[in-house]
Amino acid sequence: ETGVxxxxxxxxxxxxxxxxxxxxxxxxxxTVSWYQQALGQGPQFIFQYYREEENGRGNFPPRFSxxxxxxxxSELNVNALELDDSALYLCASRTMGANSPLHFGNGTxxxxx
Amino acid sequence: GQNIDQPxxxxxxxxxxxxxxxxxxxxxxxxxxxxxxxxxxxxxxxxYNVLDGLEEKGRFSSFLSRSKGYSYLLxxxxxxxxxxxxxxxxxxxxxxxxNLFFGTGTxxxxxx
Lengths: 113, 112
What we know:
The structure holds two protein chains of two kinds. By secondary structure, chain A is mostly beta strands. Helices cover 0% and strands 50% of the residues of chain A. Chain A is built from no helices and eleven strands. In chain A, strands 2, 4, 5, 6, 9, 10 and 11 form a seven-stranded mixed beta sheet that branches. Chain A has a four-stranded antiparallel beta sheet with strand order 1-3-8-7, with no helix packed on it. The mean pLDDT of chain A is 94. By secondary structure, chain B is mainly β. Chain B is 0% helix and 63% strand. In chain B, strands 2, 4, 5, 9, 10 and 11 form a six-stranded mixed beta sheet that branches. In chain B, strands 1-3-8-7-6 form a five-stranded antiparallel beta sheet, with no helix packed on it. The model of chain B has no long low-confidence stretch (mean pLDDT 95). The interface between A and B is medium-sized, with 23 and 27 residues.
């Protein structure tokens, strides 16, 4: 069983640029969520996708957007990067049941300079 | 919005028992999860509670009281490898979808 994989592992961008992060869900999982985790903090919910549509969103501005593909892989896009966007971005997948736990990838460490 | 509170840091001795508390205030509550996160690694699932009471899984147990908006994670026979952050997360129903919101985490240090 293949777990959740994310790419790239690390990324450095300049303020104002755009970035795309990628995630492959765990086999059999049809729901994917993205989280932002600042150092020493808990993961902050960005949004969730199910059947290629966003069906939940946290308190993040519209410059954070996403996609889910038919094979359940996903992308997180961030436009007009700000210094405060520097964080670990975690992708997590699960089956649709309410009691199904999230399975996390190892994350992408984004640094904005 | 969701309000999830946990202590920031705790220290306990190897072999001892430690209890990590979590309180929450939210609408649309649909379950509470505990995750473990070692430094530099992804969070890993520990336990799930949706009904009141205690769920036991080996050295780890988790308790939930929905009326009090309260949960705790109990770790027994502490080992050095238990040094990690422990994340309390609440599942909330929003516009028909179940979304998971995390607290800031409790950093546990196990000392010899």
